[in-house]
Design a protein that fits this description.
Helix content: over 70%
Strand content: under 5%
Distance between the termini: 55 Å
Shape: globular
Number of strands: 2
Length: about 200
């Protein structure tokens, strides 16, 4: 019984990092991230249109253009737009802030949790510039999913390199989900290329 209670109330450093990051964004940046960029509203309306017309990949005529209505409209971020539409419908702007904070906090959580296994100081050294780099991009927009997916992609490839072959089989499924949320997943192939370069350097040396 004591061990069960201890497990329930024991909090890891990675969990503390998640909570602190989440609260900082919600309590301090909440109003800022909603008003910083108007693109969020377009994604919400795009999601509304997709759900109403069952047009996952777009439409023959652009419903959001005044001058080019006869041109086709393609939406490669349809997955994110549907999610934004539903979150806003159910929870309003506060829901958008919570979603944004959750994604960024989860990114910080994963970075610390994975890298601290090797070196705690290294994980902190990486986390700080990472948060600074994404700070101006903490917005309720699809690119946040790419930030998260790139981190997960790195972990999948790194684990494969360390002879943990199981995760690599999830990569194709994971990638299919990613590309329908945001096109930034292409940067993950840069990570793959860097791993290949590293392997070639090791072989040569």
């Amino acid at each position: 019984m004591k061990e069960t209670i201890k497990r329930i109330f024991s909090i890891s450093v990675s969990q503390i990092i998640f909570v602190i990051t989440f609260l900082l964004i919600v309590l301090i940046d909440g109003k800022i991230i909603i008003n910083r960029d108007s693109d969020m509203l377009w994604h919400i309306k795009s999601g509304d249109y997709i759900l109403a017309n069952k047009a996952l990949y777009g439409a023959a005529n652009d419903p959001f253009s005044y001058l080019k209505t006869m041109q086709g409209w393609e939406n490669h971020e349809w997955g994110s737009d549907i999610l934004f539409s539903l979150i806003y419908k159910w929870f309003g702007f506060f829901g958008m802030v919570v979603l944004t904070a959750s994604i960024v906090a989860f990114i910080m959580y994963i970075i610390y949790r994975y890298i601290s296994k090797k070196n705690i100081l290294l994980s902190i050294f990486i986390m700080i510039p990472t948060f600074i780099a994404v700070d101006t991009h903490i917005l309720p927009r699809p690119h946040l999913f790419s930030f998260l997916f790139i981190v997960v992609w790195y972990i999948f490839i790194d684990e494969y390199y360390k002879n943990n072959k199981k995760l690599i089989y999830l990569l194709p499924i994971f990638t299919i989900i990613c590309v329908n949320l945001h096109g930034g997943i292409l940067y993950a192939f840069v990570i793959f290329g860097l791993f290949l370069i590293g392997i070639l350097v090791e072989v040569i040396i």
